[in-house]
Amino acid sequence: MKKFIEKLHFITHDINHLTHIEQAQMACEAGAKWIQYRCLSKNDDELLKDIHVIAEICDDWGATLIVTDHIHLNGKADIQGFHIENMSADFTDIRNLVGEDITLGGSSNTIENLLRIAQEGADYAGFGPFAETRTKPNSYPHIDLSQYHQAVMVLRDQGLDLPILAVGGVKLEDLDDLFGAGIFGIAVSSAINQAADMNEAYRSFYDKIM
After folding, report:
1. Could you say which DSSP state residue 34 is in?
2. Helix H segments across the chain?
3. Disulfide engineering: 124 pairs with which of 54, 96, 147, 163, CB 3.0-4.6 Å?
4. Residue spans per domain, the chain
């Protein structure tokens, strides 16, 4: 089942000055149509408390709500999809668990893994990190522009329709080069939620992409 995927994904994170709910509210007020709730620090009751409120915000503003991991919460809140960060995850098994209507995204750092998750039924993939990021520290090598272009070409040659999003340290000034490499979209967090004016930062990204 072909899913609609937004070109600009906003990801909430644990940060000191804004709750996940506040981040979602501010992003939606700025025009966000895709909110990825990424919280790995709370128990299920706390997660669901957040998710129920964010789901209402997304519903009010016409935004899609994606939850990072936590697929065991499927059916317990108004969640449209899940983003799976485990790069070894079996998307065939996950799809069987959550059903066809749920949007599934995955994280990848190699073209080989992009091919695998595309073949297993992922609806989109975050491919990165593009640059240094303190939001989600990791030791994976950065993906350069030539690799993004190569990934797009390999998937196309294989007849696999997997929207690729650049993720990890993406800044406004990177967009021309990234989209020039053929990517479908981007996922952003700190460039927006750490900005002096979150609304203005989101609008700057949105206007550049759309």
Report:
1. E
2. 20-29, 44-61, 91-98, 111-119, 145-157, 175-180, 190-193, 198-209
3. 163
4. 8-209
E strand or H helix that includes residue 82: strand 81-84
Please identify, in words, the CATH class of the domain defined by 8-209.
alpha beta
Positions of the chain with pLDDT lower than 50, given as ranges: none
How far apart (Å, rounded) are the C-alpha atoms in residues 132 and 57?
31
Distance CA 46, CA 159 (A): 42
- Which tens digit of pLDDT belongs to each residue from 6-32? 999 999 999 999 999 999 999 999 999
pLDDT of residue 139: 82
Tokens of 112: 């080989």
Question: How many CB atoms neighbour CB 176 within 10 A?
Answer: 10
